[in-house]
Amino acid sequence: MEFVDREINLQLKKQFTSVKNEIEKLIKDEKLTNANLVCWVPHDVGSLVQIGWEDGLIEDLEKFLIDTAPPGKWKKHDEPNTPFRHNFFEHVRTKLVGTPSMTLIVKDKKLYIGKYQDIYFFSPVYDRKPKQKIFCRILKLK
């Protein structure tokens, strides 16, 4: 088995950003036929989410996160002199909806996910930290 490491650079403009096209571009650029992609988000307040695409789903999920982990409720976590002061709620939201790493399958040159599924990068701090990365380790299968 052969492996190669790549990065996907993102410029976030909203909390939930679809990254499916970027992953499919990586598959095409690397000329992958059958492989596993191990994707990892290096920022602690960011995660990968694999979810079905349906009208209103992301909006409902955002409302769920506001209701479940509201800002200002928890104040022990503190990063003084930063824009992230008392941002425990952002850490919790990130862990509730996603994971820092995800393994994806490439089968017959295509990303192997459900017909209506999408892959999102979730970042509740997108407006303060819009530049993010996804590290991908590509495991090429024979």
Write up what this structure looks like.
- It is a single chain.
- This protein has 142 residues and is an alpha+beta fold.
- The strands form 2 sheets. It has a 5-stranded antiparallel β-sheet with strand order 1-8-3-5-6, covered by helices on one side. Strands 2-7-4 form a 3-stranded antiparallel β-sheet.
- A hairpin with a 2-residue loop joins strand 5 and strand 6.
- The longest helix is centred in the middle third of the chain and has 12 residues.
- The termini are close together.
- The model has no long low-confidence stretch (mean pLDDT 91).
Residue ranges: pLDDT <50 for 5 or more in a row?
none
Global mean pLDDT: 91
Shape, per Cα inertia axes:
globular
Radius of gyration: 16 Å
Quick overview:
The chain contains three helices and eight strands, in the order E-E-H-E-E-H-H-E-E-E-E.
Write the layout of secondary structure elements.
Elements: E1 2-11, E2 16-18, H1 20-29, E3 35-40, E4 47-52, H2 57-68, H3 88-97, E5 101-107, E6 110-111, E7 117-122, E8 131-140
Antiparallel strand pairs: 1-8, 2-7, 3-5, 3-8, 4-7, 5-6
Keywords:
3-stranded antiparallel β-sheet; single chain; globular; alpha+beta; 35% strand; 3 helices; 142 residues
